Amino acid sequence: MILKELPKKEMQALLSGDGLSFRAGRFSVKLQSNITSIYNGVAHLYGESEALFQQPADFNVSIKKSTGLRAFIRPNAQFLFNGIKPFTPLPLNQAFPLLEWGLNWCVTNHSHQYLVIHAAVVEKNGYALILPGQPGSGKSTLCAALVERGGWRLLSDELTIITLNGQNILANPRPISLKNQSIDIVKGISDVTRFSPVVKDTIKGSVAHLQAPKISLDNYCTPASPCLVVYPKYQKGINSYIQELSSGESFIRLADHSFNYSILGLEGFKALSALHDRVSCYEYCYDGNLDEALSLMDSLLPS
Amino acid sequence: MKSDQILINFLKSPKLIAQFSEEEIGHLIRQSYATGLTARVYSQLSENGLMSFIPDNMRWHFSSANKLFKAHKHDINNEIKRITNALKFANISPVFLKGAAYIIADNKCHQGRLFSDVDIFVDKSDLSIAEGMLRLNGWINNDIDEHDEKYYRDWMHEIPPLINTKSDITIDVHHNLVPLVSRIKLNSDLLLDRVVNSSSGIKTLSPMDKILHSSAHLLLDGEFDHGFRDIHDLYLLLTEYMLDNPDFIDDLIGRAEELGFELILYYCLLLQVEIFKLNIPISKIAKLKQKIPTTIITDIVFRMFLRVLCPEPSKLSSFRYKTSLFLLYIRSHWLKMPMHLLIPHLLYKAIVTPFKERKKIKELENNPN
């Protein structure tokens, strides 16, 4: 059963009661919340996700509205993980982005059975293309374009999960997070009904989320084989170019982009080494021409 | 089995895991996360060969936490070396306290214990040299406002925390072993008489003093973020030393009397009996009770300790939990400071600090880089 099929009343009762369990990426989440925008956000963006009823969830989280005086004056939303509050509360209208950031935190802080890297990752013909990038590099826009227009399968827009033998990338398909100008760009190339409302004035600027495609959700158990690492760098008005990067250079950059390389120690080193035995690495400066970018990415794939 | 007792029952008797349902193991995982003891549970499972009772799809919670613990232990060991080296030049050999001391002494309770600060003690006469040497070697102060700086220097037993810019690990330098409380008389200087040297020549408190010192912190500091972990540390320390020495509890009571720690030890032992059913003759606790001026307040405070040391996350939002937490916070300050200083301090913390923090967040929002 998927969340969309759950009657509205029942879903609300679960959220404000014991908790609503569903698949979020490859993890199961049990969520409690008394906030309307959380109900709306989950119902919309996780509508195609599997509802879970039986087994205990991987992550038990809640998003709570402030109580007391704060409920009336500038109300807040607080993220809780098993009673722990890892972040300061945010204004109530940012509750849904807070949930998404909180779920990322859950994965990056507790999943040391994998090497986890801050990068988007997509798959075609079984091959994975990893897109690491700083905020503003255009990695999420490129990732959304590849998924919405280029026929690639979304593995994750934010967290690349690599098995410790370095041979597989695991899928963790969750809503794609878009910021500022990229929201309108991606709205121009996909179905606008799959977007969440835009939340303005967050610490990252304006934020909107885009539903993960159903095909990605259905295939969350299918891993991909690492093949390409492309470091995108968006620069307005530049003449786009791509250049090969040595695996040594890429190794250092990926270690730097990873959340748990230093925790894994030797295991992390071995995973990144094995990964770099299999991938070609490029640096890609682009002017925002997505059609050109899509055909370029296709041309990098092994024929 | 009552679900809020699941972690406690497991820690009392890890073999019970064989009888836990999948749902109960799910609950164990929740409480482990809530108390920061996921890696501790891992160590108890693997030590007793019980890992196979955890379903395959749930085991990663514990093994991941163990990886984090191993990396943490490695980092702390390096930090201990850096600190001793930095202070060696000034001929100061610090006494390591709490978490770092458990690692140095290889106490069972260091297994799976994650903590953010390294605590050391240096003699008050060495304090400014020690602080200078640390600064010279790359330790710096965190952002701290004037009020907090003054509060630390005048009313705390430690200087404002220093952070190592290379490792990002914070060090708390103590010049007194317990908070400078004005309402209980503690001879904490005597703790230093029995300092022990590890095989590598690093100093820690003696076994008994370690227990008294950690209990004092847990029960006087007024912060219980890691309260359940700390009370379980004490349980492991007590069981470890009781196994070595059948008279350990008697000796410990004697030592508490010498130092003026009777009330602290009374609470500590009573909590161990109540929470973990630690095997101590109740007559010994009764004898200890005679030594302290118990009132109805003693019992109320004990009930409040029990409530805030509960590992069940769903209880954390209850009114009774919050009230106990608040009253114990007030109590810790009441023990520390005379009323004419306490009230301005608490008002500052309640009004000015949140305002300053909000301002800081606002600035961060306007200028995220």
3D architecture notes:
The complex is a heterodimer of chains A (303) and B (369). Chain A is α+β, with helices and mostly antiparallel strands and 303 residues long. Chain A has helices spanning 8-16, 36-45, 95-110, 139-148, 181-187, 214-218, 247-257, 261-264, 266-278, 290-300; strands at 20-24, 27-33, 59-65, 76-81, 90-91, 114-124, 127-132, 153-156, 159-163, 169-170, 176-179, 199-202, 205-210, 225-234, 241-245, 280-286. The longest helix of chain A has 16 residues, at 95-110. The mean pLDDT of chain A is 94. Chain B starts with 5 loop residues before the first helix and ends with a helix. Chain B has helices spanning 6-12, 22-35, 38-47, 59-88, 98-104, 127-136, 146-155, 207-220, 227-244, 248-259, 262-276, 282-290, 296-308, 319-336, 339-366; strands spanning 95-97, 117-121, 139-141, 162-164, 170-174, 196-197, 203-204. Chain B has a 7-stranded mixed sheet with strand order 3-4-5-2-1-7-6. The radius of gyration of chain B is 21 Å and the shape is globular. At the A-B interface, helix 8 of A face helix 2, helix 4 and helix 15 of B.
